[in-house]
Structure formats: structure tokens, C-alpha cells
């Protein structure tokens, strides 16, 4: 082993040091809520709060859909009850549209914060690592949030066209969610897309339902272990519940039913 | 310890300056003692390079006992290499096997512009500290020890945060190039203690905003925590997020210094 050092023949040139250039400027003006949202910490708060609202929607959506297993009448009455709630306290569909508007705003904010955080993060590492990264803690779910989110978004557009507007469902009948849903998921391609989207959603929730606690600063040694269990259980229950529909419909355990109950007057397709 | 000598293949990022193009160069390194630290192994490589009249590999280092935060680079895609809670200088070659191929690369982040080879400029961290990582105290006579009672768990938590050596591994390991772990540690070791209350809400807003000027955002991958040579917990990031919302949304900065 050669240990006798020969001094370098040419003097070592000290390279010029250029300090880091800011990747963005946070303008310290405007109302507090805007100033808060400009920061990435604030965007993560918005991401977490809107994510929580969307999680609430996913739960109630699943509970409603499970009425499919009670009877055709139950789920069709449930659809009617959604439009009619809260009874005679408000004009018909007013509360439904209020909730839908809230959901829409939450969804848009969730998307906007995700988009702008992605843009910030791209600027934060202009040159990628040239050797292969070896991730230690980041799991598949956390690293694919953008992709699982986009899959769910694309599916959601189809899902609305298929079952809410009926434009992607030739047998769609207003006011008969039972037959609309069963007919829709009897198509193998739709059932497959439904399954793929729900698997993506489960991965999204597996990370998101844990991550939101961190973003909102809900952190205490007493509950920290429960946060992971909660997210796993939440994602698992949503996955099992939602996947049961395409599977049982494909297996014809749940099938088209006649005759239609009121208020539907459309011809029977079963 | 054993006298067995190892032979490793070392692929190193070489770049003369920030403007010059860079690339990997591979060196055959025989005669490595398993008792050498990673930096001592690089010293040997550099001695041989200089002996051959070549430019040595530039890398940052100072104390070589894991407490200064000067050293650090990516080793096989992990900040500070594969051993947990260990800075590069405290990583020993016995953690690798004879015949291993090691690839080393500088931290990569917009906030850490490259200076040369494995050296990056971490002045952006100083900008964050300047914006709030301090307490203003009157420098009178020395006060008695333990004059201010602090519960033990609080003192322990503050100490855990204060263990940060500012090496930059958290930024390097983060898939988003975020400096949340560094900033939250430097903020929370003061925010947790009574002495840090007077400037708490200003500190929180100013440090977060100066951090965001240079670095990315946290998406809770936990890579920073795994890379940290001091094992600083992401719990401090959650505390920072809580304090930031309180400071901004509840306007604590304006209504006074009320305790949380």
C-alpha cells in the first residue's frame, strides 16, 4: 500500500462558490389564509383537511352502496332519500347540492395543492440523482400518490358519466340506481376498471389516511401507533367493501331485477 | 480486529466546479482495512491519486466523530450509507464486504449547489437558522442552574431535537428535496422550552418561510428520519406543522405570546 503522499504538482484551484438561489419567493402579503396557503406547510394542511372530507364521502358512499345487498327497493329508496333530505326542512335536492358543492370545492383544492406541491418539489431538485436511489422508509403507497390519485380522478370522470349522468351507460334509467349499477358492472371491462381504480384508491388511502395526521400536527406518543393502524384498517375496509360489488355482480350473486319499483316507469331490461 | 484486507470498486461523482460537467469515475481500491472509516478509505484513495499526479476527490469533513455535520454523501443510493443513525465518518468499511461495488454521489438539491466533486454548499441552512433559530437573552450575570423548572419529558424532547448536526442528509434523502426535518428540529428544540416562548410564533413563521425559499415540501415519506445520523424523529415535523397553523391562522403573532 503506497502511503507516501506526493504533493500535487499543480496548485489546487478553489472553485467559485455560488450560494443557493431561491426556488420561489413567498410574498408576505394578502389575507392570512392566502399567506398560509402559499407555504407548502399550508398546502399540506389543505391537502389533509380536504382529504379528510373526501374520506368521509368515501365512507358514506360505501355505506349507501352496501344497501345493494339488502334489496333493490332499499338502494333505490336510499337514492331517493339523498335527493329528498332533510325532508320538508329544505326544498328538494338543496342539501344534496350543498354537499356536492362542498365536495367539489374540496376535490379541486385537493388537486390544486397536489399540483402546486409537485411543481415546488420538481424545482427543489433540478438535477436528479445519477446513481440508483435505495429507499429505506418510503413505501410503494407513498411514492405512487400522484399516480394513484390520477387513476382515481380518471375513473371518477367515467364513474359520473356512467352512473350519475348516464352518458356512458346505454341502459341507464333515472331513479333506478340498482339496475344502473348492476348493468354497469356486468360489463367485464367496467368491472375491471372499477377494481383497478379501487385498488389505486386503497393505496392512496393507505398513505393519505396516515399522512394527514402528520400534516395537521396530530402527533402524540399515545396515539402515534394508532395512526398507522387506522390508515391500514380504513384503506382495507374501503377496498373490501368496494371490491365486493364488481365481484358479486360478475358472479351473478347480485343480478338485474324486475319489475321496477316506483318512481321508475322505464321498461325492464332483466 | 482482523487484519484481512478488502478490495472494493469505488464509483465516484467527479465534477471540477458547479459550471463544469460532471460524471462518474471508477477506481479499483485494493488494500482496504475493515477498521478504516469510510473517509479514511477515501484518504487512501486520495493519497494514491495524488501519488499518480491526479486530482484528489474533494469531500467535506471535520470532526470525524459524528458530531459536526460536515461530512456526508450518498453511498449506494442512501444518505450516509446503509448503517442507521451513523454519519459517513463513523461508517466503517467492515460494514461492507470484500469485492463490493460502492457508488458515491453528492447531495442533490436546489438548496445545496455543488461546489466540487462531493462537496455541496449548505449556506441555505444558515439562512434558515438566521431567520429564527435562536433565542434573544439578556447577558447579565450567570443565572443559577435549573432556575426555570422544565418537565423531564419536555427537556428530553428538546434535547432530541437539538441533536441535529445540520449535515443535510434529510434533504438529500427526501424524494422531494425538503428540509422539514432540519428546520423542525432547529425550531422545536427552542419552541418546546420556556426560553423559546418569547419568539415562538415569529420564529415559526420566519423559519418555515425561509426554508420554503430554498427547499421542497414534505409528503411524509419518512426517508429523512431513516437517513438522519442522529435519528431525529418526524414527530418534530408534525409539531412544526401545528405551530405554523397556530401562528398563521390563529394570529398568535399579533394577539400576543399566549402559551398553546
Count the beta strands of chain B.
7
The main sheet of chain B comes to: 5 strands, mixed
Strand content of the residues of chain B, in percent?
5-15%
Estimate percent helicity of chain B: 25-40%
CATH class of chain A: Mainly Alpha
Based on Cα principal axes, name the global outline of chain A: elongated
Shape call of chain B: elongated
User: What is the fold-level CATH name, i.e. the topology of chain A?
Assistant: 3 helical TM bundles of succinate and fumarate reductases
Question: Roughly what is the average pLDDT of chain B, rounded to an integer?
Answer: 93
State Rg of chain B: 21 Å
Biggest beta sheet attributes of chain A: none
The percentage helix of chain A is 55-70%
Structure summary, number of beta strands of chain A = 0
- The oligomeric status of these chains comes to heterodimer
Distance between the termini of chain B: 54 Å
The CATH architecture category of chain A equals: Up-down Bundle
CATH topology of the largest domain in chain B: Fumarate Reductase Iron-sulfur Protein, Chain B, domain 2
Estimated radius of gyration of chain A: 26 Å
Second CATH tier, the architecture of the largest domain in chain B:
Orthogonal Bundle
Give the amount of beta strand of chain A, in percent: under 5%
The number of helices of chain A is 9
Could you characterize what this model shows?
The complex is a heterodimer of chains A (270) and B (260). Chain A has 270 residues and is mainly α. Chain A has a single domain (32-123, 142-250), classed as Up-down Bundle (3 helical TM bundles of succinate and fumarate reductases), CATH 1.20.1300. In chain A, 61% of the residues lie in helices and 0% in strands. Chain A has helices at 32-38, 40-65, 72-84, 94-124, 140-143, 145-163, 177-186, 188-215, 224-250. In chain A, helix 2 (40-65) packs across helix 8, helix 6 crosses helix 8 (188-215) and helix 8 runs antiparallel to helix 9 (224-250). The termini of chain A are far apart. In chain A, 27% of the residues are buried. Chain B has 260 residues and is an alpha+beta fold. Chain B has 2 domains: 6-105, Beta-grasp domain (Ubiquitin-like (UB roll), Roll); 122-136 and 146-255, Alpha-helical ferredoxin (Fumarate Reductase Iron-sulfur Protein, Chain B, domain 2), CATH 1.10.1060.10. Chain B contains 9 helices and 7 strands, in the order E-E-H-E-E-E-E-E-H-H-H-H-H-H-H-H. Chain B has helices at residues 38-51, 123-130, 152-162, 169-173, 180-191, 200-214, 223-227, 235-249, 252-255; strands at 6-15, 22-32, 74-75, 78-79, 101-105, 114-116, 119-120. In chain B, the strands form 2 sheets. Chain B has a 5-stranded mixed sheet with strand order 2-1-5-3-4. A two-stranded antiparallel sheet of chain B has the order 6-7. In chain B, a hairpin with a 2-residue loop joins strand 3 and strand 4. In chain B, helix 6 crosses helix 8. Chain B starts with 5 loop residues before the first strand and ends in a 5-residue tail after the last helix. The model of chain B has no long low-confidence stretch (mean pLDDT 93). The interface between A and B is large, with 67 and 69 residues.
Amino acid at each position: 500500500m503506497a502511503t507516501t503522499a506526493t504533493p500535487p504538482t499543480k496548485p489546487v484551484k478553489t472553485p467559485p462558490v455560488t450560494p443557493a438561489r431561491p426556488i420561489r419567493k413567498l410574498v408576505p402579503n394578502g389575507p392570512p389564509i392566502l399567506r398560509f396557503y402559499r407555504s407548502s406547510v399550508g398546502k399540506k394542511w389543505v391537502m389533509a383537511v380536504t382529504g379528510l372530507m373526501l374520506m368521509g364521502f368515501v365512507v358514506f358512499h360505501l355505506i349507501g352502496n352496501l344497501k345493494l345487498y339488502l334489496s333493490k327497493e332499499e338502494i333505490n329508496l336510499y337514492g331517493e332519500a339523498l335527493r329528498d333530505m332533510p325532508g320538508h326542512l329544505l326544498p328538494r335536492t338543496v342539501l344534496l347540492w350543498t354537499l356536492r358543492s362542498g365536495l367539489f370545492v374540496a376535490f379541486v383544492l385537493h388537486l390544486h395543492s397536489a399540483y402546486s406541491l409537485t411543481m415546488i418539489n420538481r424545482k427543489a431538485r433540478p438535477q436528479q440523482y445519477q446513481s440508483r436511489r435505495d429507499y429505506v422508509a418510503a413505501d410503494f403507497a407513498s411514492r405512487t400518490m400522484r399516480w394513484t390519485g390520477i387513476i382515481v380522478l380518471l375513473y371518477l370522470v367515467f364513474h359520473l358519466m356512467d352512473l350519475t349522468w348516464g352518458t356512458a351507460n346505454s341502459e341507464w334509467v333515472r331513479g333506478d340506481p340498482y339496475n344502473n349499477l348492476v348493468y354497469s358492472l356486468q360489463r367485464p371491462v367496467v368491472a375491471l376498471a372499477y377494481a383497478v381504480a379501487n385498488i389505486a384508491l386503497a393505496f392512496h388511502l393507505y398513505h393519505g389516511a396516515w399522512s394527514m395526521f402528520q400534516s395537521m400536527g396530530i402527533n402524540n406518543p399515545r396515539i402515534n401507533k394508532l395512526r398507522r393502524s387506522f390508515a391500514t384498517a380504513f384503506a382495507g375496509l374501503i377496498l373490501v367493501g368496494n371490491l365486493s360489488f364488481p365481484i358479486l355482480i360478475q358472479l351473478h350473486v347480485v343480478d338485474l331485477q324486475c319489475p321496477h319499483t316506483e318512481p321508475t316507469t322505464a321498461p325492464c331490461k332483466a | 480486529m482482523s487484519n484481512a484486507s478488502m478490495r472494493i470498486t469505488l464509483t465516484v461523482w467527479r465534477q471540477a466546479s458547479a459550471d463544469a460537467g460532471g460524471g462518474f469515475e471508477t477506481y479499483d481500491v485494493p488494500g482496504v482495512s475493515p477498521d478504516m472509516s469510510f473517509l479514511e478509505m477515501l484518504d487512501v484513495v486520495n493519497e494514491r491519486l495524488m501519488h499518480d499526479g491526479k486530482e484528489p476527490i474533494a469531500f467535506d469533513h471535520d470532526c470525524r466523530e459524528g458530531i459536526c455535520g460536515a461530512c456526508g454523501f450518498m453511498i449506494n443510493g442512501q444518505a450516509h450509507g446503509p448503517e442507521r443513525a451513523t454519519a459517513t465518518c463513523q461508517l466503517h468499511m467492515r460494514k461492507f464486504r470484500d469485492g463490493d461495488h460502492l457508488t458515491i454521489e453528492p447531495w442533490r438539491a436546489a438548496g445545496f449547489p455543488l461546489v466540487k466533486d462531493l462537496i455541496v454548499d449548505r449556506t441555505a441552512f444558515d439562512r434558515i437558522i438566521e431567520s429564527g433559530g435562536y433565542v434573544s437573552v439578556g447577558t447579565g450575570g450567570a443565572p443559577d442552574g435549573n432556575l426555570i423548572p422544565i418537565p423531564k419529558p419536555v427537556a428530553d424532547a428538546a434535547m432530541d431535537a437539538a441533536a441535529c448536526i445540520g449535515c443535510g442528509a434529510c434533504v438529500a434523502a427526501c424524494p422531494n428535496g425538503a428540509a422539514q426535518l432540519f428546520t423542525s428540529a432547529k425550531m422545536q428544540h427552542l419552541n418546546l422550552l420556556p426560553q423559546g416562548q418569547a419568539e415562538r410564533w415569529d420564529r415559526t413563521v420566519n423559519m418555515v418561510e425561509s426554508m420554503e425559499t430554498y427547499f421542497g415540501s414534505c409528503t411524509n415519506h419518512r426517508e429523512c428520519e431513516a437517513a438522519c445520523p442522529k435519528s431525529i424523529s418526524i414527530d418534530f415535523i408534525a409539531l412544526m406543522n401545528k405551530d405554523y397553523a397556530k401562528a398563521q391562522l390563529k394570529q398568535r403573532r399579533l394577539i400576543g405570546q399566549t402559551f398553546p
